[in-house]
From TrEMBL:
PANTHER family: METHYLTRANSFERASE. It comes from the Bacteria. Signal peptide: none annotated. CDD domains: AdoMet_MTases. The lineage of its organism: Bacteria, Bacillati, Actinomycetota, Actinomycetes, Propionibacteriales. One of its GO terms (molecular function) is S-adenosylmethionine-dependent methyltransferase activity. This is Methyltransferase type 11 domain-containing protein.
Length: 254
């Protein structure tokens, strides 16, 4: 285990009375789109031990339990874990306070890890990727979602301006941080992230473009079920061009 390694990361936004469960109000499409992606990547497979790293109040942990015998919600925020006590009350999902760069699992203990909506808080993910690789068994699977700076709208804008997309993470914070160590908000270059993962010993197997129809206008005029039906068709073909704002990467531990 990695109990002696101190983490430099903070989850202060989520430990100051922030109710993340409310964030998902009116986001039925986004939630369903992410579940469609995970089900597609895990279809027909069974795992022994899984962890949802940075999984908040357990929104996706119940889904993982359908594919794994034992699931741990490894979440750094106590506020989130408190919310998980209610959300996961009827399940056997284990809830532990853990940071992604200092996981408390033994080497090779897990055969499945998911990390969704976490990368946009991690400008430099080298330590997190090393930990994921450490706790995964050889041949184990990781599904990592990446907030994609190179989505279609940005690529079009950069091309029009005659510029190339940045390879480094880009801050998308719209309000000045109120604390020096406030949680980061960044989008990533997918190719850079894939290279970082490969350096950690995690090899890309497949990817999906997710939340391709994320638009307030569309959500006002098109029922969520219809959006999800179209989303299901688009995720795989649009992945090649990193079209959407969210890219799901399926990786294998070497």
């Amino acid at each position: 285990m990695n109990e002696d390694k101190p983490s430099k990361k903070v989850a202060d936004q989520y430990d100051r009375g922030y109710d993340y469960t409310q964030y998902w109000n009116n986001r039925d499409y986004e939630n369903a789109a992410e579940q469609v992606a995970i089900r597609r990547l895990l279809k027909g497979r069974r795992f022994t031990k899984a962890a949802d790293v940075g999984g908040g109040f357990g929104r996706l942990a119940l889904l993982l339990r359908e594919y794994a015998d034992r699931v741990t919600l490894a979440e750094p925020s106590q506020t989130q874990l408190d919310a998980a006590e209610t959300f996961l009350a009827a399940s056997d999902v284990i809830k532990e306070r853990q940071q992604a760069d200092a996981l408390k699992f033994a080497d090779g203990e897990l055969d499945l890890i998911t990390m969704v909506r976490v990368m946009h808080h991690i400008p430099e993910p080298t330590a997190e990727f090393a930990e994921i690789a450490r706790v995964l068994a050889p041949g184990g699977t990781a599904i990592i979602e990446v907030a994609n700076y190179g989505h279609f709208k940005n690529r079009r804008a950069f091309k029009k301006a005659g510029k190339t997309l940045p390879k480094e993470p880009v801050s998308i914070r719209t309000v000045a941080a109120d604390q020096p160590d406030a949680i980061a908000f960044v989008n990533h270059n997918i190719d850079t992230v894939v290279s970082q993962l490969a350096a950690a010993g995690l090899t890309l197997q497949s990817k999906l473009s997710v939340s391709n129809l994320r638009s307030q206008k569309l959500k006002r005029i098109v029922p969520a079920k219809a959006l999800v039906a179209v989303e299901r068709v688009l995720q795989k073909p649009l992945a090649a061009s990193d079209f959407g704002p969210s890219i799901f990467l399926e990786l294998r531990k070497n």
